[in-house]
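Figure-free illustration: sequence to structure, shown twice.
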Amino acid sequence: MSSFAAQLGPLRKARGLSLGAVGRLIGMAAPNLSVALSGKQDVRGSTLEAIATALDAEWVLVPREHLAEVQRTVSGKATGPDRAAPTSVDLLLGESDA
């Protein structure tokens, strides 16, 4: 998965926010935010959380063993359970629509 900073750009654009607008939302000057996200300085977790919140997103850690599936899900390419299909309990009780 790409870095937090790399994910930030497309999400900012999707939300219609400039880096300056995000900076204003979190109380950080755009140049300082740009430097922080460049990877040239350490960024506090609370700053990353504030950026995510400003973008109406969540900052989460994904265990590596689940990373590929999370990437597929986020990209919209994952296949998930068919929620419309009857469950085994429905079938057992004869409550399916099938």
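We now fold a second protein in the same way, so the two outputs can be compared directly.
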Amino acid sequence: MTANRALSSTSRKSAWIPATFVGAMGLVVAVNVVMVYFATSTFPGLDTDKAYVHGLAYNDTLRRAAASDALGWTASAAVSDGRLTVDVRNAAGSPVPDLALQGAIVRPTTTMMDREITLSADPAHPGRYAAELDLPAGGIWELRLVAGNAPGGTAWQWTDRVIVP
């Protein structure tokens, strides 16, 4: 009977080893499940849909950007009281009137808040264009504009970061 007590006592003392192993593996699985959830439910890092297709036409994109840069136009943008204003100047510093400016204002960190915008010419100020903004958050935004009716059939494109109060 003494031998049975010694064996029983030893098995009870070592019963924690498999329980600890199973508990540790359960913890590892639980942490991995949480990490997989957050990895698949947050920002995927994609800036554009169909990135591969856009990449195939990258040389055309570079040609259009070079043609736009060759115009020598500059712009400045400001956001105040929910209104975006953009002043466009040509290479000589004169205002550029009668453009059809369209584009987007996007968040650098997520695509969920992106907004398409169309700017209208300000009749009182040649070369100035404006649009009303209804943005869900303040902070840094990226403004991407295109004027498809630039001289010579060139599509003038411009990108800048703006701070929305």
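Summary for the second example: The chain is about 35% helix and 30% strand.
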